[in-house]
Design a protein that fits this description.
Order of helices and strands: EEEHEEHE
CATH class: Alpha Beta
Oligomer: single chain
Largest sheet: 4 strands, antiparallel
CATH topology: Alpha-Beta Plaits
Number of helices: 2
Radius of gyration: 13 Å
Strand order of the largest sheet: 2-3-5-4
Distance between the termini: 8 Å
Number of strands: 6
Strand content: 35-45%
Number of domains: 1
Length: about 90
């Protein structure tokens, strides 16, 4: 089976606000970063598994997050190079 990769990123969301879907191995680092930056969020404490996708969870960023804070999140995720690996069993 071929493995494909894609960077973990922050989605601007819609009515619910921005969110980060991430493989569970990155949860601690993302939690620490958001907390240190004073960015408010809730963690969907469920762990989800779908065929061909690693186990993941979701950080829901509050809607009062500023554009500057979203840019900080994007810069952080780009700098640490967290990746999704699809198709890996």
């Amino acid at each position: 089976m071929t493995t494909k990769t894609k960077p973990v990123s922050v989605s601007p969301g819609g009515k619910a606000g921005p969110y980060i879907m991430t493989p569970v191995q990155y949860v601690e680092q993302i939690h620490e970063f958001l907390t240190q930056q004073g960015i408010r969020f809730n963690i969907d404490h469920g762990r989800y598994k779908t065929q061909g996708v690693p186990e993941f969870t979701v950080f829901n960023i509050t809607r009062d997050c500023t554009h500057e804070q979203l840019d900080e999140i994007k810069s952080f995720l780009d700098s640490v190079n967290f990746m999704w690996e699809f198709g890996k069993e």
